[in-house]
Amino acid sequence: MKVALGLITKYINADISILDFVKNANKFGHEIDALIICYSHGYDRPFVEKLEREFPKTHLIKVNHSYDMERDLRKRGIRAKDFMPLIYAETLENYGLLPYSTYRNTVLIKAMLLEMDALFFVDTDVYPLLLKPSHRKSNLPDYISLKDTKELEDYELEEIDFFERHFKYLNQNDVMVTTSDYSGYYIIPPMEYSYLDEYLGGLQKESAIDFVKSCSGTGCINFASKEEKPYSTDKFLGGNMAIKLKAFKELPPFFSTTYMAGDELVLTRGEDTLMGTFAKNNQLKAVDIDTLIFHNTYSDFPKVPDIVNSVAIKDRFYYASLGWIGRNPFMNYINGNDYKALYEKQKEFLVKSSVHTARYLKDRRFLIMPTAIDSAMKSFNRVLDEYELSMEGFDHIKMKLI
Length: 402
Description:
Layout: E1 3-12, H1 18-27, E2 34-43, H2 45-54, E3 58-62, H3 67-75, H4 80-87, H5 90-95, H6 100-113, E4 118-122, E5 126-133, E6 155-159, H7 162-170, E7 175-179, E8 182-185, H8 196-202, H9 209-214, E9 221-222, E10 231-232, E11 240-244, E12 258-261, E13 264-267, H10 273-281, E14 285-288, E15 293-295, H11 311-334, H12 339-361, H13 369-378, H14 380-401
Parallel strand pairs: 1-2, 1-4, 2-3, 7-14, 8-15
Antiparallel strand pairs: 4-11, 5-6, 5-15, 7-11, 8-9, 10-14, 12-13
Helix pairs in contact: 4-14, 8-12, 11-12, 11-13, 12-13
């Protein structure tokens, strides 16, 4: 099986954890046939030179400047009208932002051109480690890039054979996708205030209500499972995932978009959500391997996230909120739900709760949420057009490359 490892990022520098995974694969005897990094804004030359020395099979692709890849696609008989909606973003030039799906589809299509059999994705802030509640000192190899490990003495970080955890299931003929969640702090930090239930309901994050309200301090940490219990899933996590490329005969490309919240362009979340829906509908087997690799969510673990007083955490939650709001109408439509009725219900929740959220967080930006959900709904027809254009182009691409 020819395997590619993919990563998406704004900047390529020493802050990303990609070398940890490359060296982890080498340590445990796994061959990575290509490392594909799609970036948008720039790179640190000394780090890139180090990366290419240590792993010569590295392919760096800059969004909107993927000229070599575009030439290769044309040589395969694929028209620009088919691939450009998937790998080019006008919003990058105008706003300095682009949909997450543009990054991921660039990596995906490059893997297809390289005739890979499987593509792994990891994110820049995850590590081939499991986080466990322990007073045993972590015994990490020198190459792990996680900083300030002395602060982790109340926890155990255990290096694992990351790729073998996926291959154990991916090597089965009927398994097309392997994925799993993360250990570490959840993206919604602990908080408690009046109308929190309504606010999370307005974001369509009802499943997080009990956890967010009940946990406190270090009790909000998700730890790795004591015993692996894999199960079938239709929830794909883009930062801890492997896909057989032949599965894309049935699967769609990654898809997400942008919308305006006030005067600001916002990225919608859930570029991998659509795949899970299609996998389920087409009876493609996907397995959650129950390997919760460590996610340094706020870059300062184990510090307890304090959303009220931390500007960085507040910013992240603000943009995550807008991202979920922007995703939900289209996602609900694709899932066959009454997206208009859900919009009305969620707007009502946000109207009731946003002022309380803004007051609790001491941040007037959160008052925009009812306006944002209106904007997301007004963008629905445009988003549907973008989706159909992406699907049509991807159909032509996979006919040539799979």
